[in-house]
Each structure stands twice: as C-alpha cells, then as structure tokens.
Design goal:
Number of strands of chain B: 7
Number of strands of chain A: 0
Distance between the termini of chain B: 62 Å
Number of domains of chain B: 2
Oligomer: heterodimer
Helix content of chain B: 25-40%
Structural class of chain A: mainly alpha
Number of helices of chain A: 10
Number of domains of chain A: 1
Largest sheet of chain A: none
Order of helices and strands of chain A: HHHHHHHHHH
CATH superfamily of the largest domain in chain B: Alpha-helical ferredoxin
Strand content of chain B: 5-15%
CATH architecture of the largest domain in chain B: Orthogonal Bundle
CATH topology of the largest domain in chain B: Fumarate Reductase Iron-sulfur Protein, Chain B, domain 2
C-alpha cells in the first residue's frame, strides 16, 4: 500500500483509541450529517413556530393564552429544555457549516477565469452561505424584538398580540421580517432537500416526493409567516 | 471557421500560469475539440514555440484522460460528452473560447491544461476494491443479483474518473467520484464483506486529499460524461451512517494497516 494512502482504524481497540464519535465528526460527511440532523430539529421547530404564529388570526386572547401555555408547560421547565436543544442545534449547525465552508474555500485556491456555468444548481443552493449568516442576524434581532423587547419600543410583557401589532405597524420592521422569511424560504428549500440527501434518505420511488416536500415546507413556512406583517400593515389584524 | 482561444499556459507545477490568446483559423466543424488543439499545436511547433500540453488518450470518450474546462463548463457545452468527443460544430465562427484546467487544490497543475489526478488513485487504493481472490470468471447467475442492483452498480461503475465532477463543483468536492466507487461495490454481493470499512477509508482519504465538501448542488452529475447520478452520494451517506452506527466493532476485517 502506498504510504500516502490513509489507514483508518477500524478494529475494536482502534475504535476505543480514536473514539467513534470523534472519528465520525472529524470527517466531512459526519459534519454534513450533523448539519442535517440539527437542520431537522430546526425545521420542525420552525414549522411549530409557524403554527403558533398563525394563532394571531384567532385574536388577542387566543395568542396570548397560547404564549402563556408555552411558558407554563412542564412547570415552566419545558421552554428551557426546548431553548437549550435549539441553542445546541444552532451552535452545532453553524460550527459544522463554518468548518465545511472553510474547507471548501481552501479546496480551490485558484478559481476559474471564465464564469462557471451552473447547470443543476439552484439560486437557493448557491445562496446557502449567504442565507445562514442573514438568518443568524435575523434570529438575534427577532429575539431582542419579540422575546426580550429590547429593540421593540412599545413592548408589553405577556401581551404578545399587542407586541406583534405594534411591532409590525412600523413598515421597516415588517420589511425586515418579510425579507428574512424570503431568505428562510430559500434556505429551507435547498436545506430540506439537502438534508434528506445527506442522511441518505433517497430512493427512486420517493425522490419526487423529496423535491415536493422541500418546496412545500419552504413555501408554506415563508408564506404563512409573511402573511402576518402584511395582515398588520393592511389592517386585517389590529 | 475562425475562433479565438484563451488558453491557460503554465510551464510547470511551480510556475505561475497565465492566459495566452491564440487565433484558430480555418477550423473544420467536424474536427474534435482536441483535434482543433492539435492544429494549433502543429502551428506552434513549426513556429518553434512550446505546444499546449493537454491530457488525452483514447479519444473515444471512454478512458477519462481528457478534461478541460471550456467556457466555464467541464468538458464543454455538450451534456454526457467528454472533451475529446466534443466537436467544433458545437461552436460557431467568431466564438471566443476560454480553456482552463480542472481547478482544485487536490488536482495540482502539472503543465498547461494537465492536472495531477493521482488523488483519485489514492482514494481507490484506500478502499475502492474487493479483496476476494477473483479467480476465473464465475458461471453466469452463480451469484443471484437483482437486475435493478446490477443495473445501478453498472451505472455507478460507468465513472471513468475524469474529474469533471470536481472541476464543476463549487466546492471542488470529490463526492460524486468517491460515491460512485462506494456504490458500485455496495450494490453487489461481492462488495459486502468490506462495505463498512470501505466507505470509512475512502471518505477519510477523500478528506485527506483536500477536496471540498459536498453541498448538494448537483452540478457534478450535470457535467458527468457518464451521467453518474447523485443518488450514489445518498448511498455513500447511508453507508457512512451504517458503518458508524452499526458496523460490528468486534469484526476483525481489515484492521488498518497493522497487519
């Protein structure tokens, strides 16, 4: 065997030495799969969040009661468990993405002079590395806006409905949210398809469903969330 | 027809390269792309200049030796076609054509348009084989294989290792190449004993070579002259999970290079 060909430890003793998890995460495919699993967690959260948001259409009482419920579940503990899980998912997702991106940038030190022709890649797939940082900034803004109220200006603790209406009444706040949801839609569209691929969940019988699922999730989440600031701006929700 | 070429010229691996402009006149549309370069090279040789170095062997689209990025697309504008099988009728008079080598850290330029693809050989050497003694050809149907699997394995085995997937990938990733080799064996009974070890070793070697990381853009399968599908990448990913989670840790199969 050529000296430059790697020898991967595979026996039981070697496994103990290297550590299965470390070897797994140390590989690029392992990091991708960590991104996919954390992606699943975040997609499920985003869908749940969207369903919660839509209660704004049921009126102030409904939405505020739902918010109270979330804070009360599990004697007020569940919300922190979920927050912890989400924070871990976000950190792992970003950490892996950064490591993989740096690796990929280093993999082509001299680029092409003629613009590369994209054939099957999509606008969504090519903007993943823009979408990630934009969404991170948005999440920080969103937490400071609707969770802590720091950037709100007219924040009433516990009155979620009021906070939503007052917040989205300012046109540029709505604009930020609408833009962020469009970015989220693009990120989800490629992300949902990509995570199924990365987890190896592909089969000729279901591949059409995969693409459909990605479009469906991306479109529904973005459209439902965008409808709320639009509803406030147009006075449907007030 | 007359066309203008901008060709990457680089004296050797250590030199800095640059684009040189050539006018290719009286090109016959039935010439292959490489024959067009041959014509330029004949002229350069007669003029006492260094001919353009490019890789080629069979010129029948089956060996995987040729490879040029033509106007930003690996192997040029035609789908399922290697550069040697591309003909000048795919272009028109007055066209300006940029010719560049595969660009990847793992594929260093040897000279002009020739890159060193031995990184691929090392990925194969890391696990792209079966260790069972082959012997003479077995009787037909002695080993039952579902027709679909045989077809899919053949599709994956169609990879000629040209490297267009790496060249076209935004990340310079070698996932399609590696996945085609992993899938080719993973789909057949003969590949099973080393299946778990194979994927680990080949991925580790792929990482070691400095290729980028797959982000599922799928431009690799679009430029692949053999239409190797990204479904094979999903197969690799699946095998990788399997080998991490359920591979028998007590199994003594191929314990590193300790033996």
């Amino acid at each position: 065997m050529e000296s430059s060909v790697i020898s991967v430890p595979v026996g039981a003793a070697a496994a103990k030495r290297a550590g299965y998890l470390r070897a797994y995460y140390g590989s690029t495919v392992g990091k991708k799969q960590v991104m996919a699993v954390t992606g699943v967690i975040m997609v499920l959260f985003v869908i749940g969040h969207m369903i919660g948001n839509l209660q704004v259409y049921l009126g102030a009482e409904s939405l505020n009661h739902y918010a109270e419920l979330l804070r009360a579940l599990g004697h007020g503990g569940l919300i922190w468990v979920v927050r912890g899980l989400l924070l871990a998912a976000v950190v792992l997702h970003i950490w892996s993405a950064t490591a993989l991106t740096l690796g990929s940038w280093a993999a082509r030190p001299i680029g092409y002079r003629h613009r590369q022709r994209w054939i099957e890649s999509t606008y969504a797939s090519r903007t993943m590395r823009w979408g990630g940082p934009i969404l991170l900034l948005f999440i920080i803004y969103h937490l400071l806006h609707f969770t802590t109220g720091t950037l709100h200006g007219d924040f009433v603790t516990g009155d979620v409905y009021h906070n939503v209406v007052a917040g989205f009444s300012i046109w540029w706040v709505s604009a930020i949210y609408i833009f962020a949801q469009l970015v989220l839609g693009l990120h989800l569209y490629h992300g949902a398809w990509s995570m199924l691929q990365t987890l190896g969940l592909s089969h000729a019988s279901y591949d059409r469903l995969r693409a459909g699922l990605a479009i469906f999730v991306a479109f529904v989440v973005a459209a439902a969330n965008i409808s709320i600031p639009l509803a406030v701006l147009t006075g449907v929700v007030s | 027809m007359n066309i203008t070429l901008h060709v990457w010229r680089q004296k050797d691996a250590k030199s800095k390269g640059r684009f040189v402009k050539y006018e290719a006149n009286d090109i016959i549309p039935d010439m292959s792309f490489l024959e067009m370069l041959d014509v330029i090279n004949e002229r350069l040789t007669l003029e006492g200049e260094d001919p353009i170095a490019f890789d080629h062997d069979c010129r029948e689209g089956i060996c995987g030796t040729c490879g040029l990025v033509i106007n930003g697309r690996a192997h040029g504008p035609r789908a399922r076609t290697t550069a040697c099988q591309l003909h000048m009728r795919s272009f028109k008079g007055g066209d300006v054509i940029w010719i560049e080598p595969w660009r990847a850290k793992a594929f260093p330029v040897v000279k002009d348009l020739i890159v060193d693809r031995s990184a691929f050989d090392r990925i194969i050497a890391a696990g792209g084989f079966i260790s069972a003694p082959a012997g003479s050809a077995p009787d037909g149907n002695a080993i039952p294989i579902p027709k679909e699997n045989a077809d899919l394995a053949m599709d994956a085995a169609a990879c000629i290792g040209c490297g267009a997937c790496v060249a076209a990938c935004r990340n310079a990733s070698a996932m399609l190449f590696t996945a085609s080799k992993v899938a080719q064996f993973g789909l057949l009974p003969q590949g099973q004993p080393e299946r778990d070890v194979r994927v680990k070793r080949m991925v580790a070697q792929m990482d070691l070579e400095g290729f980028g990381n797959c982000t599922n853009h799928r431009d690799c399968q679009a430029v692949c002259p053999k239409s190797v599908s990204v479904d094979n990448i999903a197969r690799l990913n699946r095998d990788f999970i399997r080998s991490t989670l359920v591979a028998d840790r007590r199994a003594a199969v191929g314990v590193g290079s300790a033996g």
